[in-house]
Amino acid sequence: MPQWLALYYREPLEITHGEGRHVWDAHGRRYLDFFGGILTTMTAHALPEVTKAVAEQAGRILHTSTLYLDRHMVELAERIAALSGIPDARVFFTTSGTEANDAALLLATTYRRSNQILAMRNGYHGRSFSTVAITGNSAWSPTSLSPLQTLYVHGGVRSRGPYAHLDDAGFIDACVADLQDVLGQAHGTVAALVAEPVQGVGGFTAPPDGLYAAFREVLAERGILWISDEVQTGWGRTGDHFWGWQAHGASGPPDLLTFAKGIGNGMSVGGVVARAEVMNCLGANSISTFGGSPVTMAAGLANLTYLLEHDLQGNARRVGGLLIERLHALTAGLPVVREVRGRGLMIGIELAGPDGTPSPEAASLALEHARELGLLVGRGGREGNALRIAPPLTLTVAEAEEGATALGEALRRTQQDLDGKAGS
After folding, report:
1. Rounded Cα–Cα distance for residues 174 and 336 (Å)
2. Per-residue confidence (pLDDT) for residue 101, from 0 to 100
3. What secondary structure letter does DSSP report for 248?
């Protein structure tokens, strides 16, 4: 394995199986899973409807490629196109969010005949050469070499930066002015703006609702496309909306939308949705060997059906709202907790050291303490100082309370560690 392939925890954890919102390690210990394989186990571990669909399809045929028709792929494409909100939509399936964003960049730059891309500071879109080129988070950008000219704009982080002191309306106005200033420095045509409605790796940060709608007005005047990266925000996780872009939909839907992670509930599924004229702009042959495979499409179709029939978006809104309230109450008065933020079942907790600066050490300590208490959470943020909470969308109220209690205790222990170190 490469040296740069990171593992969580001082003593790495081997997960052997899961059920519902819980997983077990190789020693038989059970954990409440508040990270879901980086937001990928979206509905539940070992969801019977999905495992049955996978097993039945695997018993028929595992692989064909996009050179042949597959009923599950067509049906899933039709459903996603209808749900996307993009008129006259077309869907291309990939194997990951990275590949989906790659495809979106290929489409946008070909359609606009430009390699200039607008991206958000603190954003993350994958680990391929082209997606690293638009990543605004230095911790996930190992090279400055790039096939694209990327111009970064403000707006993805509400509580930090030069506009943090403004109210929401003033923040949006300032970010729009910054966008216009950046466009004034661009050389000729700009292809697209790519943005996560909620920045995932960036620590679940988000702008005020309506920011990208205001951006959209500026972009539309110049014909610049809007790519909404829904790899982490899609399928109702934020509770209030099915897609993250809908919090910014006053100026219409995006031109392209990328998705992955949760739709496969652990299977490798990604894709891009685009207006037909954009999707069909490629003048060369293109297929996907593994994107849209029969097994992953069967899983995605079963998973989406379950999500819609059981209103998991509504559950994310209700249970997520309760979870956020409990976390606010349990962490009140802890100096280590700088901010609790998020919506639905996509919650970030930003941690700070005794001097108030971002503390990756605190995040590492909190991660370890949560594990000791039987809870798995994620980590992110520009400085690695944010906890990421994203349990499966079937989370119950009792499990939310259990997880909140464990996390509150983990953060109290973290505070004690920091206080002890400062006093020594």
Report:
1. 30
2. 98
3. G
